[in-house]
Amino acid sequence: MKTSLHVDLGERSYNILIGEGLIGKAGTLLAPILKRPRVIVITDENVAKLHLVPLVNSLNACEIKNQTIILSEGEQTKSFAELEKLLDTLLESAPDRNTTLIALGGGVIGDITGFAASIILRGIDFIQIPTTLLAQVDSSVGGKTGVNTRQGKNLIGSFYQPKLVIADTSALLTLPKRELLSGYAEAVKYGVINDYPFFVWLEEHGARAIEGDMDALAHIILESCKTKAEIVGHDERESGLRAILNFGHTLGHALELETGYSKTLLHGESIAIGMLLALHLSVTRGLCDMEDYERVRLHFSKVGLPTSPRDVAEKWSASRLIQHCYKDKKAQDGGLTFVLAKGIGKTIISHDVTRQELETLLAETL
Ligand code: NAD
Ligand code: GLY
Q1: With contact defined as beta carbons under 8 Å apart, do 282 and 251 qualify?
Q2: Which of 88, 101, 130, 334 fits a disulfide with 126 by CB distance 3.0 to 4.6 angstroms?
Q3: What is the C-alpha to C-alpha distance for residues 20 and 1, in angstroms, rounded to an integer?
Q4: Which of 219, 228, 295, 324 is catalytic?
Q5: Within 10 Å of residue 104's Cβ, how many Cβ atoms?
Q6: What are the pocket residues of ligand 2 if the criterion is a CB atom closer than 6 Å to any ligand atom?
Q7: CA dist., res. 175 & res. 132, Å (int)
Q8: pLDDT score of 115
Q9: Distance 318 CA to ligand 1 centre (A)
Q10: Among positive and negative, which fits the CA dihedral 257, 263, 267, 269?
Q11: Which of these, 299, 297, 307, lies nearest to 201 by C-alpha position?
Q12: Do 2-174 and 177-365 agree at the fold level?
């Protein structure tokens, strides 16, 4: 069974296909949208071992010429240095404007491949085949691409939409539980920002998904992608509404930068902590009840996600974290843009969070 969603962006519109075993059918699914039957698959060393063979077999079965480039796994791969190496290898393979790139992997592979596709030969097509829960609920949809720099996360990149997203839920069977949980945090985000019934569903059924129940996982991916597709359809380039998708990200990204984009803190884990810090700030501002904060904290804690920076490290530098927040992409005229919650299911975008408020928040939570 396969479900299909549409991301409505005029001439940049595309479909998201969700279902079991889709990697093995990828050749048939993507053949109709290729300009020419030639693709270059970009993946990482872990995913290559687990999911590359069925993809290549299905491409061969459809007579789609293909090559593969295998990158190192992990967040460190999303760097300028790795991008340069990737572009170099791609150019050695002599792609032309009708060649299509395929990102087979998690958010790291999706983000760097999408960025490479957006700049090579001034832009060629690319397709997302996300293999982590995080990539299936979030990063493969919406066209944000890029790399990290020493100044912060995703500060170099482009908005560049894929031509198709193929989310094969079976790929999640090989995903380590910690990675599954990291993606789960981004799914909870959709509940907290604008879908209270989904948050309630996650409270009741989320644990089942984390144990590997395929129907529950498919439901989570579908509901998450519905919300993301709708928001991106209204505000592709984040001139307003789309910023709510960054709930928990200002401090979350600061925590990630402080831990050197390492396995100390996975992306979704940092966002879980960042969401709770944003909720804490929302409570202090009188926007949100303490019970709402507690409810989200309890849910994260029940499923096994970190709930405080202290769960990750004993010592943090508040001043450095605050400095990172001011380098966030959403900062405007030197001031912070912060997504805050008005209870569970409703968010607002604030431009007046002060340094003093952040100092107080971090003094209470670090
Ligand atoms: P990731 O790509 O590093 O994947 C996590 C780990 O899982 C890696 O070790 C990978 O090799 C492994 N893996 C992937 N699929 C697997 C599978 N099926 N079985 C076993 N192992 C598998 O990380 P991620 O969590 O997928 O993505 C995080 C990145 O996504 C961050 O860089 C973040 O900034 C970015 N992101 C981007 C957007 C966007 O809109 N573009 C949104 C959210 C996050
Ligand atoms: N993950 C945030 C966005 O896509 O806008």
Answers
A1: no
A2: 101
A3: 7
A4: 228
A5: 29
A6: 138, 142, 144, 242, 245-246
A7: 7
A8: 98
A9: 27
A10: negative
A11: 299
A12: no
Alpha helices, DSSP H, located in 62-176: 80-92, 107-119, 133-134
Catalytic residue from among 253, 295, 299, 324? 253
The CATH number that domain 177-365 falls under is 1.20.1090.10
pLDDT of residue 101: 98
Concatenating the DSSP letter of every residue in 237-280 gives T-SSGGGGGGTTHHHHHHHHHHTTTSTTS-HHHHHHHHHHHHHH
- Model pLDDT, residue 295: 98
- State residue 152's pLDDT score: 83
SS3 label, residue 348: strand
Active site residue 122: yes
The confidence score (pLDDT) of residue 16 equals 98
Which CATH number is 2-174's, of 3.40.50.1970, 3.90.226.10, 3.20.20.80, 3.40.50.620?
Answer: 3.40.50.1970
What are the structural domain ranges in the chain?
2-174, 177-365
Closest protein CA for atom 1 of ligand 2: 245
* Residues of the chain scoring pLDDT < 50: none
Our answer to whether residue 242 is catalytic in this structure is yes
Q: Indicate which ligand has the atom closest to the C-alpha of 266.
A: 1
| Residue 330: per-residue pLDDT | 76
| Token pair 């992608």 in the structure block, residue | 225
Dihedral sign, Cα of residue 144, residue 228, residue 241, residue 180: negative
